[in-house]
Design a protein that fits this description.
The protein has 237 residues and is mainly α. It is built from 8 helices and 2 strands; from the N terminus they run αααββααααα. The chain has a two-stranded antiparallel ribbon. β1 and β2 form a beta hairpin. The protein is flat.
Length: 237
């Protein structure tokens, strides 16, 4: 996977996600999820990482399975007092769960090994506006810096005896914390911009290594197209 053009991998991720979002039959979605599981093993995706990233998705899916059948569908599987648990709602909740798991797993297979800088450059090469690709790069780069700043402010609050409680003082203190974090973020952004201008930044990054579409990418794109056509035939046959 790492030998492919990152632009090919991004285009494949978008195409697969759109196709899975448009699918509706649980059997076809289960087949797509199984294919994603096989692809994750071929791509040597770590199971621990996959389970960690799929846990929030499945927690949300569990909420849907519990809540959606109560409000959707006229054919109840069973009733508890005045509340009915419908067959149509359960089918819809399972389809959404399969869609979400398949899309996230395919995204991890196709994009999981791409570092942020390569992803930003690939988006730039793919025609994404400069400001959007730069926003992605700067956001990922400075999230850790802002988190460290937040931890320093929290430590300073604890050293001054702050203990969170359900009170107006606690709410006011947290408001001051958020405000100070925003102020320091703006100050840091101005200093970073000044440093970049001193180094000759004029609104865009100049790339030394450009991506190239190869025969391997053509074969990979053909496999993806064949998979999506097969999914479409299964869905609408």
């Amino acid at each position: 996977m790492d030998t492919l053009d990152p632009r090919t991998r991004i285009a494949a991720t978008i195409a697969v996600s759109v196709a899975l979002a448009a699918a509706s039959r649980p059997l076809n979605l289960a087949i797509a999820l199984g294919a994603a599981a096989v692809a994750s093993r071929l791509a040597r995706l770590q199971l621990r990482v996959a389970f960690k990233r799929l846990t929030p998705v499945n927690l949300f899916a569990l909420i849907l399975v519990l809540a959606l059948p109560i409000s959707t569908g006229p054919s109840p599987l069973f009733t508890v007092g005045p509340v009915g648990y419908s067959r149509e709602g359960l089918r819809l909740a399972l389809a959404i769960a399969l869609k979400a798991n398949a899309i996230v797993l395919w995204s991890m297979v196709l994009l999981g090994s791409l570092d942020t800088v390569t992803l930003g450059h690939a988006l730039h090469h793919g025609g994404v506006p400069d400001k959007l690709s730069q926003l992605l790069l700067f956001t990922v780069r400075y999230l850790g810096v802002l988190h460290d700043e937040y931890l320093r402010l929290r430590t300073a609050m604890k050293l001054r005896g702050f203990r969170p409680q359900v009170s107006a003082h606690t709410y006011r203190t947290y408001g001051h914390l958020v405000g100070m974090l925003l102020v320091r973020s703006v100050d840091r952004s101005e200093r970073v911009l000044a440093a970049m201008k001193c180094r000759g930044f004029r609104g865009r990054f100049h790339l030394f290594h450009h991506f190239a579409f190869s025969a391997r990418d053509a074969w990979f794109a053909s496999v993806v197209v064949l998979m999506l056509v097969s999914l479409g035939l299964l869905e609408y046959a």
